[in-house]
Amino acid sequence: MRFFLPLILLAVDFIFLIPNSSAQSRKDAMKSNIAKPIDEILQSYDSIGSPGASVLVYEKGKVIYAQGYGLKNTTTGEKVSTSTCYRLASLTKQFTAMSILQLCQKGKLSLDSPAHNYLDNMPAYTKAITIRNLLTHTSGLVDYEDLIPAAQTRQLSDKDCLRLMHSTRELYFTPGSAYRYSNTGYALLALIVQKVSGEDFAGYLRRHIFQPLGMYATIAFEEGKSRVKNRALGHSRTGNGWKVTDQSLTSAVLGDGGIYTNVLDYSRWITALLEYRLIPDTVQQVAWQRARLDNGSPVNYGFGWHVDEIRGKFLPHHSGSSIGFRNHILLFPEEQRAIVLLTNRDEGNPFLLAQRIADKVWPVRY
Between 20 and 30 A from 315 (CA), which of 33, 160, 223, 358? Predict the structure, then answer.
C-alpha cells in the first residue's frame, strides 16, 4: 500500500557509496539505501486496514524522498499518497507566526506593542501582554481549551477563543516571567493578522504565503467556505478497530491548528524558509532561536517553533497533535535538511520516528 515519488538523485552523501554503474542502477541503489530503513521505521503505518502516514526527506532544495503509507480513510479504503492532505494541528503555528513577522516587516505592527492595541475586546487583565509574548508562549494566558463550557456543542472559532478569555480574570503568571504553552495566544495572533491586514486570516495566508510559494493544495480550512482536496481523515483506535475521529470542538480554530497540507507542498514551505523568501534572514534566524524571559533566562521556544537540543545542536522543530492526527517536522537549517512526518491517527510519536529517520538517512559522525 505504498506510493513512491520518483527519487531525485541529489544526495552526494549516498552517491560515493555507489560503484560506477548506469544512472538507473544508481537510482535503484539510492532508493534501497533510503527506502529500506524508513520502511522498517514506519511499518506499523502500512498494516492492512490502518490509517497511515506521509513522510518527506528534504535536502538542499530538493525532495530526496517522499512516500505514503496506509489509508487516508479506513471507511472507504482510500490509500495515502504523497499528495494526501493532513490537518497540521500545531504545525500551523509557524505559518501564523510568519504572518505576524511579515506584517511587522511592513511596519504595520510591533512585536513589543501590547496585543490590546490591535484587538478592542481584550480583557483588562491582559493589558501587559505583548505580541512577542503571544508568539513565544510567555503571555500567561489560560489555554482556551480549559475554558470551554461543558455544554458547548458548536465548534469554536478564533473569535470564540477571545470571548472565552472573559470567563476568567487570571493569568497563569505575569507576562514575560515564565513559559507555558497556550493555544489561546495563536488564536489571538490570527485575529491580529485580520485586524492589521484588513483580510480574513485564511485569505491572508492564501494570498501572502500559499499562492506566492506555489502551495496550491494548502488551505486554512473553513467548513462551508473551503474544501480540502485529497483529504486524510483523522482516526482513533477502539476495541473494535479504527474509528474516524476527524473533528472536535477546537478543530475550527485557525490560528493554532487549522491548516491542511501535503508533504510535497510542505517542501515548498521549507525551501521558502531556508532561502528567506518571505522575511529577511536576520528575522527568520530569531524565529528559530530560543526566546528569553524578562529576567534573561532562555525558553525552548522561538516564534512558532520549539527549539531544543537535537543531535548536539539547538534546532527548530514542532509537533502537531489533535483528535485523529499526529505530526512532526525536524528542521536542520545549517545543513539545509528536514524530515516531515504527517499521520492521520491519534497515537504514536512522530517526533521520535522523525529523529530515527534522520539518524538513518544522515548518520551523525562524531
Answer: 33
Q: Is 163 helix (H, G, I), strand (E, B) or coil?
A: helix
C-alpha cell at 114: 501590547
Is the pLDDT assigned to residue 105 strictly greater than 60?
A: yes
Q: Which residues pair with 238 in a beta bridge?
A: 241
Predicted confidence (pLDDT) per residue in 201-247, tens digit: 999 999 999 999 999 999 999 999 999 999 999 999 999 999 999 99
Give residue 33's pLDDT: 86
Q: What is the DSSP letter of 210?
A: I
Answer whether residue 4 shows pLDDT above 50. Answer: no
Assigned C-alpha cell, 224:
462551508
Question: Could you give the angle at the alpha carbon of 351 between the alpha carbons of 350 and 355, nearest 5°?
Answer: 110
For residue 355, give the nearest of 55, 71, 16 by alpha carbon.
55
**Count of helices and strands (H, E) across the chain:** 10, 14
The greatest distance separating any two alpha carbons of the chain, rounded to the nearest whole angstrom, comes to 71
What residues contact 158, with CB distance under 8 A and at least 6 apart? 187, 188, 190, 191, 201, 253, 254, 255
Long-range contacts of 275-284 (CB under 8 A, 24+ apart): 275/61, 277/212, 277/213, 278/98, 278/102, 278/209, 278/212, 278/213, 279/98, 279/101, 279/102, 279/105, 280/105, 283/101, 283/104, 283/105
- pTM equals 0.91
Q: Which residue has the cell 532561502?
A: 275
State the cell numbers at 146. 480549559
**Could you give the percent of the chain with pLDDT greater than 70?**
91
Task: Taking each helix axis as running N to C, give the angle between helix 93-105 and helix 183-197, from 0 to 180 degrees, rounded to the nearest 10.
Answer: 40
Cell of 73: 480513510
Q: How far is CA 52 from the centre of its chain?
A: 18
Residue type at 201?
F
